[in-house]
Design brief:
The structure holds 2 protein chains of 2 kinds. By secondary structure, chain A is mainly beta. Helices cover 0% and strands 50% of the residues of chain A. In chain A, strands 2, 4, 5, 6, 9, 10 and 11 form a 7-stranded mixed beta sheet that branches. In chain A, strands 1-3-8-7 form a 4-stranded antiparallel beta sheet, with no helix packed on it. The radius of gyration of chain A is 13 Å and the shape is globular. Chain A starts with a strand and ends with a strand. By secondary structure, chain B is an all-beta fold. Chain B has no helices and 12 strands. In chain B, strands 2, 5, 6, 10, 11 and 12 form a 6-stranded mixed beta sheet that branches. At the A-B interface, β5, β9 and β10 of A face β5, β6, β10 and β11 of B.
């Protein structure tokens, strides 16, 4: 499978715990994006990497959120001290020279 | 600023009938426009995009969309809907004239095709 992959697909955690999600983009894509989708809403942009550089962060990305793409390939999104409001689907997407973004299956986070 | 409006939360059609999902957009410059489809508990699947050129864009699974600059619309259409087209559809926009690569999505339209 040469699409975008995300791990885990589902995560249930207790409030206050830290969680980390991983995204593996399409191999030749240099741009990687994180979006968050809550029930009944469209995806909202969180952050964007070009190669290993994080070029933009949304104001939605509080200090508890951090994203990395250390070698310009896979990326991780960490949420510290999770809150119930963090419950959402976290989507990763990648793109290359084309403007089209290709999304992964998402990680559904439930914070109890 | 860029934004998308999908004025209908739900669209219901009978199988075999034409399907239209509406989208209007707002950007400062010229738009890149996209349609994605999402099945339950799945990520977004790319359907089609408009960059430039012909206003009628053909995409996956028999879908097409018509770009109308004067009405700032990009409605998704399918001549004959299938039950398997039942899903959540998102329209998205990006301003062509910026180096801002993020997409702005509409809230989504749930399509139900009844047999």
């Amino acid at each position: 499978d040469t699409g975008v992959s995300q791990d885990p697909r589902h995560k249930i955690t207790k409030r206050g715990q830290n969680v980390t999600f991983r995204c593996d983009p399409i191999s030749e894509h240099n741009r990687l994006y994180w979006y968050r989708q809550t029930l009944g809403q469209g995806p909202e942009f969180l952050t964007y990497f070009q190669n290993e550089a994080q070029l933009e962060k949304s104001r939605l990305l509080s200090d508890r959120f951090s994203a990395e793409r250390p070698k310009g390939s896979f990326s991780t999104l960490e949420i510290q001290r999770t809150e119930q409001g963090d419950s959402a689907m976290y989507l990763c997407a990648s793109s290359g020279i084309s403007v089209s973004k290709f999304f992964g299956p998402g990680t559904r986070l439930t914070v109890l | 600023a860029q934004s998308v409006a999908q004025p209908e939360d739900q669209v219901n059609v009978a199988e075999g009938n034409p399907l239209t999902v509406k989208c209007t957009y707002s950007v400062s410059g010229n738009p890149y426009l996209f349609w994605y489809v999402q099945y339950p508990n799945r990520g977004l699947q790319f359907l089609l995009k408009y960059i430039t050129g012909d206003n009628l864009v053909k995409g996956s699974y028999g879908f097409e969309a018509e770009f109308n600059k004067s009405q700032t619309s990009f409605h998704l259409k399918k001549p004959s809907a299938l039950v398997s087209d039942s899903a959540l559809y998102f329209c998205a926009v990006r301003d062509m004239g910026t180096n801002d690569y993020k997409l702005s999505f509409g809230a989504g339209t749930t399509v139900t095709v009844r047999a």
